Amino acid sequence: MSKEEISVKIFKALGHPIRYKIVKFLYDGPKCVCKLNEDIEFSQANLSQHLRILKEAGILSSEKVGMNTHYRISGEEIKNIVDSVDKFVMSYFNDSK
Fold this sequence. Notes:
- The chain is α+β, with helices and mostly antiparallel strands.
- It has a single domain (3-95), classed as Winged helix-like DNA-binding domain superfamily/Winged helix DNA-binding domain (Arc Repressor Mutant, subunit A), CATH 1.10.10.10.
- It has five helices and three strands.
- The chain is globular.
- One of its GO terms (molecular function) is DNA-binding transcription factor activity.
- Keywords: DNA-binding, Transcription, Transcription regulation.
- This is Transcriptional regulator, ArsR family.
- InterPro entries: ArsR-like_HTH, HTH_ArsR_DNA-bd_dom, HTH_MetalResp_TranReg, WH-like_DNA-bd_sf, WH_DNA-bd_sf.
């Protein structure tokens, strides 16, 4: 896979509102999938699909802790992308007033 294809895969994964919400929910640290299921108002199967897409794009990683699976953002680079988008959106709204 080329660098461009990997970049597009990351943007596509982050481009879905539910997946973006998942990443924002995990921004402050790892959380159990049970907590994600409480916060994200979709079925377990739907949530699992979104988590799989985020993992395949390299955005999230997971680990088993006892009987539970905990998800985390895979690196600071992903947080930097989210921060950059948030800053852009703020400036976009401030400039459009």
